[in-house]
Amino acid sequence: MVGIMIQGTSSDVGKSLICTALCRALVNRGIKVAPFKSQNIPNNSYIIDEVGSDTGTPGTKVNGLGLIPVETRFKNEKCTSQSIGAFIPGDLTSLLRVKGFEIHLGLTKKLDEASSSFLKVGEREAGIFLRSGQIIGTYFQHLFHNDEWRTWWLNRLRLKRGLKKKQKKSFSEVRTRAYDELADWLEQELNVDELLQRMREWNNET
């Protein structure tokens, strides 16, 4: 089955709601799905909200899509930390360590011990790595900001589709260029100097 994209005209118009409902409807029909979005859509086996932080009712169990064989338990204390991870799967150990951060209430453990963990962060194993990297689950934010990892992952997809590998690009340089282009576009439509002057005047009035 080909992939589909749900798009909307702005935030809060129901894209996530429609995607979640569609995924559940497909799973109920025996179809395997792999939703992708930078927010929590439970691909795991189930979530147990021990403290009611998400559902409002302590001890609530919510079934996930079952794509990743893990259990997640929501706790009171939120993890907020900058992290450095080392890859665990054998064909990734030659890559550099990745830098990122974690922000989450959940603690996740594998239900299938035969599954490979994805990263080693400090003394703990984190995430899950399935089907030679076709499925990856992790709390690690900014993973794709790491140039070497991103290039390795994208080149694997390119080779599977008969495309040539591409050389590594600096995400920081590309992002900076994009920000500059966006700012240039804005200045064509908005007198930023005039806006700043108005802001100074408003500030003096208060």
From TrEMBL:
Residues 46-149 form the CobB/CobQ-like glutamine amidotransferase domain. It holds the Pfam family GATase_3. Transmembrane segments: none annotated. InterPro entries: Class_I_gatase-like, GATase_3, P-loop_NTPase. Coiled coil: none annotated. Keywords: Glutamine amidotransferase. This is CobB/CobQ-like glutamine amidotransferase domain-containing protein.
